[in-house]
UniProtKB/TrEMBL annotation:
InterPro entries (UniProt xref): MIT_dom_sf, MIT_domain_contain_protein1, MITD1_C, MITD1_C_sf
Name of this chain's protein: MITD1 protein
GO cellular component, one term: midbody
A UniProt-annotated Pfam family: MIT_C
Gene: Mitd1
Record organism: Ramphastos sulfuratus
GO terms classed as biological process: midbody abscission
Length: 138
């Protein structure tokens, strides 16, 4: 996953999408460091999925792409609902949502995305389109 994220960072960098490439570089390095740390303790892996079960990095960009906020949720943490994480950004002016997550593969990940979409639709915003960009499963 770390290597794939770094490949994506290079692609974004070449496309002059520097803010997004920076985020991918940071996440890719973080993923590789997690593997190194896990290997030092007898092995381990990191997967993406439910918000209450695993580490999740969430990044928000303003319309000009210059602002971001990263929230780290430690493994097995509780109390982080989609509403608590995203509600302050879902105002009446939001009409389109883009989600980029290369890790959506399994049923529970699809259900999490569905719950996220339900939260958006029920919110105060007037979202007409939700886009999901994910990667191919090799």
């Amino acid at each position: 996953a770390g290597a794939e994220t770094l490949k994506r960072a290079v692609e974004l960098d070449l496309a002059s999408r520097f803010q997004e490439s920076l985020v991918c570089y940071q996440e890719g390095i973080d993923l590789l460091l997690q593997v190194v740390k896990g290997t030092g303790r007898g092995g381990g892996s990191r997967t993406r999925g439910g918000l209450t079960a695993e580490l999740c990095d969430t990044i928000f960009f303003s319309s000009d792409g210059k602002y971001h906020k990263q929230i780290r949720i430690e493994e097995n943490a509780t109390g982080f609902s989609y509403e608590k994480l995203f509600q302050e950004y879902l105002t009446e002016t939001v009409s389109e949502v883009w989600v980029e997550d290369p890790y959506i593969r399994q049923a529970h990940q699809l259900y999490n995305f569905l719950r996220f979409c339900e939260m958006i639709v029920k919110g105060p915003c007037k979202v007409k389109t939700i886009h999901l960009l994910t990667s191919c499963d090799e």
